[in-house]
What does this fold into?
Amino acid sequence: MKRAISEVLSGASWQRCRVHFMRNLLARVPKHAQSVVAGLVRTIFAQPDQASARQQLERVASNLERRFPQAATMLRDAADEVLTYMAFPEEHRRRIHSTNVLERLNRELGRRCDVVGIFRT
It folds into this structure.
């Protein structure tokens, strides 16, 4: 999908949903440490710009390296995809950092189609 997007929509960026990324990341951490790791990772997204967010991401990954190497590797590998939204103006970031709005719309459309019953599945 990423390759197709880059070929068809040149200059388009790929943004990974922050919510889904957190789910995937926390799946690599034991239950008892998930709240601490989630708190650390949230400090990345609280940064005012992309440069400071990348610096914070590296600090968090370094902290996680010893205890949770899989999580640290995943964090570093996904840095570009997770922080893409920070390249946009600040007033737009709140809307594009997650795909939850789009997913909610698709669920609502599905629900309404089920109610009407004209679209068979």
